[in-house]
Model the fold of this input.
Amino acid sequence: MSHEKGYNILCYRACLSVPIIAVTTEPMATIQCSNPECQTINPLENRVCEECETPLLKRYLRPLGDPIESWEVGQLLDERYLLVSRQVVLDTQPGIPPNFREDIPENIRKYLRLFPYRLHLPQIYTYYDLDQQEESGTDQLLTIGLLEYGTIPLDESGKPRHPELLPKLTEAWPQAKENPLQQLKWLWQIVKLWQPLEGQQMVSSLLDPSLVRVNAGMVQLLDFHQDEHNFHRIKELASVWLSLVEDTSPLIVDYLRSLCDYLQRDRIPYPELLLNYFEPALRQCGQWYERKYQVFTLTDAGPTRGHNEDACYPTPGELTETSTEQPSFTIVCDGVGGQDGGEIASNLAIDTLAAEIPQLPMFNETRDSQQGLEDLAEVINLSNNRISERNDAEDRHDRQRMGTTLVLSLVHDHQVYLANVGDSRIYRITPDSCHQVTTDDDLASREVRLGYLFYRDAIKYPNSGALVQALGMSNASSLHPNINRFILDDDCVFYYVLMV
Done:
């Protein structure tokens, strides 16, 4: 299943995290233009490149561990990474791929295995050994590691708004006192992270207020703690949450107190059960908000293809609006490049989903969110089987089989369900951020999830963009759609990107 990969870059006013290295001091800090056809050196205070006027990409990172204690703020590490503070490093060559170690220690592999949760958890930007022989005269290796967080809040000058890149949840909580749905959403996201972190023996990180941060309305951990024991229980969240009561919205403060009481008395022993307790509160809060949804779709064959294998719903080129009473959904499919009949597969998927989604029982008030996820997975599997059955009927095998990627969003009341199969993506854009909210089904992402490679290293390998699944390539029994749910409490745009 070959799918040649190229990247559509959008809204990249972002920052990430980077490693630390050898020492040079420059009289004036500079940054290199990330445009590969330019790469002009610019003064750090510039917002755009002096030569090509490309916006300068500033990736702010956080050191992993504390190997930089011997260096001074303002020094350039490994002739690349500017030490802005003890907690912040800037990559001054953001257009050049970072270095990586070939062997990956187990404590670093845990970051990679949590790659699907990178919207809430830091990832390794670079990790490698630096030979310090030239600096110290000794044959000594220094391990450099830097963490990235996607887009972080920047001020008008392009510098981080917060000394440690992200504000603490405890700092942001009082500011959201007039937004009870946002406060509930933050706690709900913490619970959703419990199981994946528990699986990597890092769940104690959720109990440390210094690590629990907020980024673009989402909970994001600054780093992980290795658990000292395997006996952490979900009830431990109660003592942390009770410290937030004083600044909790009056509309939900009694609910939060009751929830913490239930936790402390072991009435809610499992994270899955705790998530269920959130549902009626989220639903009630969602009714207090007025919201409007707008959808605009458009596809194009691009500069290299002779015909357009993409398909979308609603009708391309028309702006549509819906209210909260009307479920709204958007679908984009990209016929798998190189496969015969990709445009047939993408249109067949659109036709099936557009007919089936309005009939879903998830719009019944008696259906809970987990059932909603299952309902959506069922219609995606149905669209897969219709394409697969056509392949079988036309006796298509191997690379002759037609297939398609899928990205889908379904909005209902205060929530949006996002689904994807293949490497087509959805980004969530706010006034201050741009984050990818889907995970690609390609070889590069799979190697990262298995802990074998760092993502920026994996995408350099041949066939890294080959798909590991797409609609129509086989029976739905082997298909695993990626489906997630977001709580909507602020203005945002969900932007679809097809890999070409």
Q: What stands out?
A: Residues 1-27 have pLDDT under 50 and may be disordered. The first helix runs from residue 106 to 113.
